[in-house]
């Protein structure tokens, strides 16, 4: 990934300076500790200015609407303290001037505003895009005293440049480098970034072996043609420096599109990891619970002997005496003599009744344990289905659907900006095939799309997608194709032999309060896919 350097910042300022100077800051939001969104208006147009000071993807740009959605920006209900500070000083203020200190990765907004006494004051909002040292700082331009920072830097983090409220604002220490525009000697292409201002490590690789005159043209931003490589490995202000370039309409769009791609990719992986962790915890929990219930059920199976003891005692009342410590009887069920230990403080009938009570208690426990085990098994199957959906998810929107399913209370707001994904649709002449990618889509297929005589397919005894075949009297060839699609879209796509069951929609039933996508079926047929 290409890092955001001073040359890119310079080109962006040059492109957007006219809009920014004279613009008013209408709204300030802080989605996360390292992100800020300013709504600015000028020349009859409103734009969202995005600031990211994450060490890995630090950058600034005006966000496009589509990329704003792809970045998955969530505004917290309670704004952070730094956001409140910025709102106090900067909302409804005017940006008078935009500057970049020579060859620094710092964007400065010089702002005209008013204090509590309605006196005009001048502030500077400095956005420092410097890798792990990235920061956003608001300071008083007249006194040079910091009002607040996105994150404070104490002496334990930096002995050179502390950053915190009430401290004086200073620029980063000057580097011992040369201005390449004034240089006329030989070039060492392996250390350009070490010796010259304005050349980052990434740019150094792109301009390797270029003549000095051409490099100077690049530094002076001549013939800017912003481009991103088609595999998103790199971007450049000069298309000729990129392999397989995809030309961009502006420097801002290049920055916006490039970093949105990596933010979306990063958030996709983070969300996938988050959902996988939650689902694995649930799977492990239900597996352990089923294991414990199975052990308890094995113990309860032994209570069957209490019924036998009670029956044998009652059958032998005539030839035994009460208050005995034991009784010897013949077990007709197992054809053997057995000795039953008794409570010698009770009669034979009372002992028999005690055994019947123990039997009935065990019978009730067994019934309840069996019901619990069946419920836990259904939940285990459900979470295995969810895990399958997570593993096959291809984009963030699909993961958000799954997150809404797992955490509906946390994703209520997101549904307004991220519309539900439709199931996969395949047309075969007069027939249509639908394939669900997750439980929400599976449920949608069954409850909304399917009619009574449509055919429903699912792999037997393993997680997979619901496949629906719509149309009258489908040929055997198409039925077999749907069965293969059910196998391919399951947790066992490469199994050498797997069964696929299918039946008509009217034979499906969704039990009350069942998990999303869960159905029972009857009158099914099975196809073995080899």
Distance between the termini: 44 Å
Radius of gyration: 36 Å
CATH third-level topology of the largest domain? ibrinogen binding protein from staphylococcus aureus fold
Describe the biggest sheet?
6 strands, antiparallel
Q: How many strands appear in the DSSP assignment?
A: 22
- What CATH architecture label of the largest domain applies? Roll
Task: Just give the CATH class of the largest domain.
Answer: Mainly Beta
Q: Which percent band covers the strand fraction? A: 15-25%
Structural class: alpha+beta
Spatial shape:
elongated
Q: Give me the side-by-side strand order of the main sheet.
A: 15-16-18-17-19-22
Total tally of structural domains: 4
- Oligomer category: single chain
Please give a structural write-up.
By secondary structure, the protein is α+β, with helices and mostly antiparallel strands. It has 4 domains: 6-174, ibrinogen binding protein from staphylococcus aureus domain (ibrinogen binding protein from staphylococcus aureus fold); 180-247, no CATH class; 273-398; 422-529, no CATH class. Helices cover 36% and strands 22% of the residues. It has 12 helices and 22 strands. The protein has helices at 6-20, 65-70, 81-90, 192-195, 201-206, 212-219, 251-301, 304-315, 348-392, 396-406, 439-449, 476-488; strands spanning 24-29, 35-42, 45-52, 59-62, 94-99, 106-114, 120-128, 135-140, 146-149, 227-229, 235-236, 245-247, 326-331, 336-341, 424-428, 431-435, 455-459, 467-470, 498-504, 508-509, 520-521, 525-529. The chain has a 6-stranded antiparallel sheet, sandwiched between helices. A 5-stranded antiparallel sheet has the order 5-6-7-8-9. Strand 5 (94-99) and strand 6 form a beta hairpin. Helix 7 packs antiparallel against helix 9 (348-392), helix 7 runs parallel beside helix 10 (396-406) and helix 8 runs antiparallel to helix 9 (348-392). The protein is elongated and about 120 Å long. Residues 411-419 have low confidence and may be disordered.
């Amino acid at each position: 990934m290409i890092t955001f350097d001073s040359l890119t910042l310079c080109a962006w300022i040059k492109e957007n300076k006219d809009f920014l100077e004279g613009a008013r800051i209408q709204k300030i939001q802080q989605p996360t500790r390292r992100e800020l969104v300013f709504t600015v208006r000028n020349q009859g147009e409103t734009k969202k200015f995005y600031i990211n000071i994450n060490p890995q993807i630090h950058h600034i740009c005006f966000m496009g609407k589509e990329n704003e959605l792809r970045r998955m920006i969530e505004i917290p209900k309670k704004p952070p303290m730094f956001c409140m500070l910025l709102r106090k000083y900067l909302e409804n203020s005017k940006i008078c001037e935009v500057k970049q200190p020579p060859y620094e990765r710092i964007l400065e907004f010089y702002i005209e505003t008013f204090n509590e006494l309605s006196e005009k004051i001048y502030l500077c909002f400095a956005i420092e895009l410097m890798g792990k040292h990235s920061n956003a700082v608001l300071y008083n331009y007249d006194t040079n005293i910091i009002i607040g920072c996105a994150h404070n830097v104490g002496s334990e983090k930096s002995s050179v440049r502390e950053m915190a409220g009430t401290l004086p604002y200073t620029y980063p220490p000057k580097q011992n480098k040369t201005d390449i525009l004034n240089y006329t000697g030989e070039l060492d292409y392996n250390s350009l970034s070490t010796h010259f201002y304005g050349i980052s490590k990434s740019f150094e690789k792109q301009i390797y072996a270029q003549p000095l005159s051409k490099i100077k043209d690049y530094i002076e931003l001549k013939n800017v043609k912003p481009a991103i490589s088609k595999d998103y490995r790199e971007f450049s202000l000069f298309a000729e420096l990129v392999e397989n370039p995809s030309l961009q309409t502006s420097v801002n769009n290049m920055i916006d599109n490039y970093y949105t791609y990596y933010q979306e990719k990063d958030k996709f992986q983070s969300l996938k990891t988050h959902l996988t962790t939650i689902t694995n915890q649930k799977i492990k929990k239900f597996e352990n619970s089923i294991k414990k219930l199975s052990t308890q059920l094995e113990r309860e199976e032994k209570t069957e002997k209490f019924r036998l003891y009670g029956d044998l005692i009652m059958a032998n009342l005539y030839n035994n005496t009460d208050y005995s410590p034991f009784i010897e009887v013949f077990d007709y069920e197992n054809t053997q003599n057995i000795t039953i230990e008794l409570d010698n403080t009770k009669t034979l009938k009372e002992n028999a009744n005690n055994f019947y009570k123990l039997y009935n208690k065990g019978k009730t426990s067994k019934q309840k344990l069996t019901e619990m085990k069946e419920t836990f098994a259904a939940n285990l199957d459900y979470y295995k289905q969810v895990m399958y959906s997570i593993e096959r998810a291809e984009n963030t929107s699909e993961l958000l659907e799954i997150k809404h399913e797992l955490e509906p209370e946390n994703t209520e707001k997101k549904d307004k900006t991220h519309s539900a994904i439709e199931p996969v649709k395949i047309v075969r002449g007069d027939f249509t095939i639908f394939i669900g990618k997750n439980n929400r889509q599976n449920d949608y297929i069954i409850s909304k799309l399917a009619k009574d005589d449509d055919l429903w397919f699912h792999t037997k005894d393993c997680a997979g997608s619901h496949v629906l075949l719509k149309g009258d009297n489908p040929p055997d060839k198409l039925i077999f194709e749907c069965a293969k699609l059910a196998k391919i879209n399951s947790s066992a796509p490469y199994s050498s032999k797997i069964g696929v069951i299918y039946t008509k929609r009217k034979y499906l039933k969704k039990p009350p309060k069942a998990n999303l996508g869960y159905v029972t079926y009857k009158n099914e047929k099975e196809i073995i896919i080899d």
